[in-house]
Amino acid sequence: MREENEMTEVNVYIAKIYSIAKPEKAKEIVENAKKKSKTSGLSYKEVLSEEFINLLDNPEKEDNKKIMDINFNGKIEDISMILLSAERYALGRQTYIVQWTCEVIGGNTHLLTTKDLKVMIRDIEQCNDYGWDCDKKEWLELLDILKLILSKREEKKNV
Fold first, then answer.
1. Whether 85 and 143 share a structural domain
2. Alpha-carbon distance values, 82 to 9, 36, 108, 122 (Å)
């Protein structure tokens, strides 16, 4: 059963990598993760997790992500606030908006200010009712991603 859960998590990370990276880049990342897991002492899931986080919050994200050019009249803090507002709107709802919101936030953590990142983490941790079980799963997965991003940012800040 544990191996089955591990493979499910591996497949989720692979799907997430393919959802935000160009297909050629995603394939390269997945293949390199297999090789790295054999030599590094880390599990395949751990290596994929690191690669996914690097894709999300990497300064070279434009090279990796499927992005579109948008002319936004505002600052990065404004976009971060919009994502925070979406999280607060969707938290506790029991509709398709939960999955969609979690996917959009999870794929755009580079647009979140560290302050808003911390607020989202607190919101999700202190939530009393996530909605249905499927909604709770989405929120807890997003929470894991947000915590990883925050820890990476704090590591960079302390170096």
1. yes
2. 29, 37, 12, 17
Quick check: pTM over 0.90?
A: no
Residues 19 and 46 in one domain: yes
Are the C-beta atoms of residues 88 and 122 closer than 8 Å to each other?
no
| Residues, the chain | 159
Q: Which two tokens stand for residue 139?
A: 């929120």
Per-residue CA distances from 16 to 24, 74, 125 (Å): 14, 29, 23
Q: Which tens digits make up the pLDDT trace of 68-111?
A: 556 778 888 999 999 999 999 999 999 889 999 998 998 888 88
Q: Domain of residue 29: give its range.
A: 2-64
CB 10 within 8 A of CB 45: yes
Q: Which two tokens stand for residue 117?
A: 């990142």
